[in-house]
Amino acid sequence: MKILVLGKRGQLASTLRNFEKKSNESEFEYIFLGRDEVNFENLINLEDYFKKYNPEIVINAVGYTAVDLAESHPLEAYKVNAISLKEISIFCKKYNSALIHISTDYVFDGKKTFPYEESDKTNPINVYGKSKLLGEKLIQKFTDKYLIFRVSWVYSGFGKNFLNTIIEKSKTNLELNVVNDQFGGPTSTSQIVKALRHFCEKISNHEKPWGIYHLSGEPHISWHKFAEDIISIASNYNLIEGIPINPISSNDFKSLAIRPKYSALSNVKIKSVTKNINYDYKDYLEQIIIEKAKQGLNNDE
């Protein structure tokens, strides 16, 4: 089964490529398209790749994820997160490809006090969330065979994310200030990849699991708690030295974009149709930090 992955160097695509290299399975053949091959703000040549590979599945791992920057560059955010989805969906329907798309918890306003379900009303409060929600709607309008995964607080050992930022800042700061009044579920890209593979197998077996699914790490915590866990585990493996993490209010953290106070996602639906997926974010976090520590030792040799 051929799977066309839109994205090559982002967190999710990098994790998927890393998994592919380590796997001996031949059931799936992945083709990765990066910005060198496709301009995701202008998909004029994308259909050429549909014609060339005729993929059974397309995974859209491309996104404009700079939440604050989206406030000052809304056009770029909408081009990548929304407008492009119309073309991608049209091509998927034309070539009978299933589309798997990654969305976000930021399609919600954060006013709930318990985890959001797929059926809850969306109401994004920043440009990033609004652009992602429009992308969801365009997918649903222009194709039938789709899976939309809303994920939250994505982290990995690759690229720019909260985990890597905290580790880097801990090397040059005596203490850090992190907000303690925003709550969600840190989600490892490894967890997302496991879910993607599970659903790809369903599609390969001619099942029809179409729709929207929430997928997040558990338990749901604050950014402050997440930072504390990162520092604690990283210092246990001598990756960094432990430093204090001071809790602060969102009002004390200056940012262009307003963020939802509570964007925890319920995993009830996805758990009902999947198996053998670990949702404990600390397990994934420790695995990534162990790998980083090993890389550090190898670099020192």
Structure commentary:
- Helix 1 (11-22) crosses helix 7 and helix 4 packs parallel to helix 5.
- With 301 residues, the chain is of the alpha/beta class.
- The strands form four sheets. It has a six-stranded parallel sheet, sandwiched between helices. A two-stranded parallel ribbon has the order 6-9.
- The model has no long low-confidence stretch (mean pLDDT 94).
- The chain is 43% helix and 16% strand.
- The protein contains ten helices and twelve strands.
- It has a single domain (2-160, 186-221, 263-280), classed as Rossmann fold (3-Layer(aba) Sandwich).
- Global shape: globular
Number of continuous helical runs = 10
Beta-strand percent range: 15-25%
Low-confidence stretches: none
Sheet bearing the most strands, described?
6 strands, parallel
SSE series: EHEHEHHEHEEHEEEHEEHEHH
- How many β-strand stretches? 12
| CATH homology-level superfamily | NAD(P)-binding Rossmann-like Domain
Provide the residue-averaged pLDDT: 94
Number of domains: 1
Strand order of the largest sheet: 2-1-3-4-5-10
**Category by helix and strand content:** alpha/beta
Question: What is the rounded Rg?
Answer: 19 Å
Please identify, by name, the CATH architecture.
3-Layer(aba) Sandwich
Give the CATH class. Answer: Alpha Beta
**What fold name goes in the CATH topology slot?**
Rossmann fold
N-to-C terminal Cα separation, in Å?
41 Å
Helix percent reads 40-55%
